[in-house]
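hiii so my PI (J.) wants the whole complex modelled not just the main chain, which honestly fair. so below is everything: two entries, each one labled with what it is. i double checked the lines twice but i was tired so who knows lol
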Amino acid sequence: MTATTDRTVPYADALTRYEPVMGLEVHVELSTATKMFCGCATEFGAEPNTQTCPVCLGLPGALPVVNRTAVESAIRIGLALNCRIAEWCRFARKNYFYPDMPKNFQTSQYDEPIAFDGWLDVEVPANEAGEPPFTFRVEIERAHMEEDTGKSTHVGGATGRIHGADYSVVDYNRAGIPLIEIVTKPLVGAGDRAPEVARAYVAALRDLLRALDVTHGRMEQGNIRCDANVSLMPIGSEVLGTRTETKNVNSLRSVERAVRYEITRHAAVLDAGEKVFQETRHWHEDTGITTAGRPKSDADDYRYFPEPDLVPVAPSREEVERLRATLPENPAERRKRLQGEWGFSDLEMRDVVNAGAVEVIEETVAAGASPAAARKWWTGDLARRANADGVAVTDLGVTPAHIAELDGLVTGGRLNDSMARQVMDGVVAGEGTPTQVADARGLELVQDDGALQAAVDKVIAANADVAEKIKGGKVQAAGALIGQVMKEMRGQADAAKARELILATLGVEG
Amino acid sequence: MSNLSRDDVAHVAMLARIQLEDHELDRLAGQLDQIVDWVGQINEVAAADVPPMSHPLPLVNVTRPDEVRPSLTQQQALANAPDPEGGRFGVPRILDEE
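here's the output for the full assembly
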């Protein structure tokens, strides 16, 4: 295989002539304890082929039995995506000859998916070009149950890829782990925002699946994998163009980049009067391009037929309603509600979401802290500490209750902000609760107004010129004096109170 | 009634990775055509209100709880594998050279 670089046209240029159409297929690995059709464990990272049995190895005579929790998860995912739930559906065998399934087929669903005809409203944020945020309704074609494949390692050859390999070795621990495949209808009408829609959809889906607690949801570990189909229609046409399917795009950023790249590549092919070749494409994270994969052809006839070893799945309507009652609040709506309750600006809320701090702030507010203080600590001071130590902010040993207690010490007038940070040093160091740390370190604002007044008088006397300026109306010059007063008090004073006293002493209105 | 052509048989054989000689294709096309005809008789007696049957037992929702059961050991899993390597199943080259 020679990797030639394909021609592309500039993105904005392509969009003047073509309307992109996308179809997104997302595979979700469920977080069940066992596989889809057998009781083998699903733990990540086990020694190769230590989580297999006659069923998932496809040994003769072994019979599969469906995992009840996996079916429930599939139904809950379908309901969360506003799908209809099949009253009766079957599994089917998808026959093919790659050795990643030892059975020579994958047990999947074909024309009878468990969930179908749904939608998800996706919030697309404002972009760097200054285009505004908007909502895009992604129509869901279907969500069906299937099983994951084994993991192949290709040996020999220069690249470690399947092409040019001498042979391959396979670990079947992953073979049979429950997967839900979620397929959108063709997404049309997003225009130049199409790549952003793709990213926002996968992000919204990931958040929803995590809220449902049906998957570990780690894209980097392959719990959620996206295949992106892209085609172009000349503007004004209603005939769908030939599509390509870019496989295994496994980060949000890559989804956006891969769709964008394919748009620029398709446009160059069509501009030249040539035909887009129907094929799968490989995404290359490092170079940001796709290369040709496998052609789609007659060999893709998978000879589906109903799985004779499994009986149909027929969820009763009562069961479906029972599962509907377990659905969590939609994450996007929940964020909107919390933002209103907390009084955060859009920008503040976005920082909180990007920092993954929604839950911890919710718990901190519930523990009694003000929303503003909770946000300041978790996305500010604590985020910086976590970043410096290379750990998650929730792994610093600081709890929501600690923050609430510390906030109480500040609002109650015992600590100022700089003392609160010193207390936090102690809490992070494991010296105890905020009160214990403050006691042990002797941190307490001087409540003795006499001592503070003495310090103010001393500083004003030593800075007659500044005092004159303040008297003359330059109130902001008080900052320099506050700093000196705090120094006199060795930091053990309330800066706001010091400012008040300085202005009062000089007879100036704050 | 059915019309299974020699090309159909060649196509299905390719999908199933079965190599057939010309004389086998000739013979099998005729035989398979007969079999499809034979099974097709069911369509003549089954009206539209009879759903296709994919399973002989009238059961639905046979499931098991999500509880881990013992797996085979790696040695057991690989016991019949001709070319194990590093605890994995060795398989021949997957794609032909292009």
